[in-house]
Amino acid sequence: MEPLLDQLVDSLRCLPGVGPKSAQRMALHLLERDREGGKRLSVVLNKSMEHIGRCTICRNLTEHKTCHICSNEQRDKSLLCIVESPSDVIAIEQATGYRGRYFVLMGRLSPLDGIGPTELGLEQLGEQLAGRPPKEMIIATNPTVEGEATAYYLQRMAQKHGISVSRIAHGVPLGGELEFTDQSTIAHAFSSRRAV
What we know:
Layout: H1 4-12, H2 20-33, H3 35-51, E1 53-54, E2 61-62, E3 76-83, H4 86-95, E4 100-104, H5 122-131, E5 136-139, H6 145-160, E6 164-167, H7 183-191
Parallel strand pairs: 3-4, 3-5, 5-6
Antiparallel strand pairs: 1-2
Helix pairs in contact: 1-2, 2-3
């Protein structure tokens, strides 16, 4: 049987960006300096794993049947933003004044990895578009090959229902300098330029 300390270190390694040394530091910190914090972490982690699921409307993470965004009657139902992950929802909520609804794909189309329309909940999205279509669908997938393929698929879905489609802009970051920006980002920003 593997020693409990080794099991703790190995368990912490499941977190993204946590290698063996970081996991060891975390485990030792909890055991040597913050046992109460470790106990609190284990209780909340256990509750989270048992009670957090997906919203029945937008597929975002929530401990309720419907998330706080979908259940908020003040949100604009004429706008629907499609994102790849719950972290994208958090980023948009914190950085913008967007007051519409979301649909969280929990990934992007990637046939080589076995991720198709079914895994992304696109049937559920199609039902929503047919039942209560928004006026505008904002596609906010990442500017990767898979993200662009997903955006194209979503665009075709929206067009079938006569829904206006927009895509978030990608390009040179605010405060960035052109000479330090990669060529594909510059090319995309240049081709997506708009009148001022």
